[in-house]
Amino acid sequence: MTYRIAPSILSANFARLGEEVDNVLASGADIVHFDVMDNHYVPNLTIGPLVCEALKKHGVTAPIDVHLMVKPVDRIIPDFAKAGATYITFHPEASEHVDRTIGLIRECGCKPGLVFNPATPLDVLEYTLDKLDMVLLMSVNPGFGGQKFIPYVLDKARKVRRMIEERGLKVSLEIDGGVGPTNIADVARAGVDTFVAGSAVFGKRNEADPNRYDTIIGEMRAELAKV
Questions:
Q1: Cis before residue 121, ω within 30 degrees of 0?
Q2: pLDDT (tens digit, 9 = 90+) per residue, 68-93?
């Protein structure tokens, strides 16, 4: 299995965001995770399509993984697609018509995914998994960075991985919240292949070079090599 590390820019220094993204990608990250919050679906307000567009114009070529924590979602999807998103994931309870929203993301030229909060059932995957490119499991309750990992989400990860394999699909399984070197191997053993890490990465700059994140990303890679 190919593992991908996706630092969440929610924990980056926004005063120099382009440089931060350049540095974390140069240090070995694979994906830019982009947390969009509307102070409605979740109790926080973050960033919109203009920031995504600015990163693309800055020269970011890595995949941009846009996680929409907004309700409703359909209105904003074309804007993020135009801004350069690669993946667009959303919460099923934030859409009145989940299948239609998935189709909209695909029509806009992006890869669709569904996001499940820790206590949200996986039932909708029975009908949608074959239409997705990604399933994102929240291992914290969405809204803020720096929270502790919720262990029972590993059981959900095992269930999703079984569903993917039983159907012979190529769907990425991503996890977001409280992931770092101490638990990333256990998360991988549960079937996860893509790991969002915000404060765990951006809070661990190299002592010798504060513009680099090689040490923390290297620690995570070393743990994944043990799986």
A1: no
A2: 999 999 999 999 999 999 999 999 99
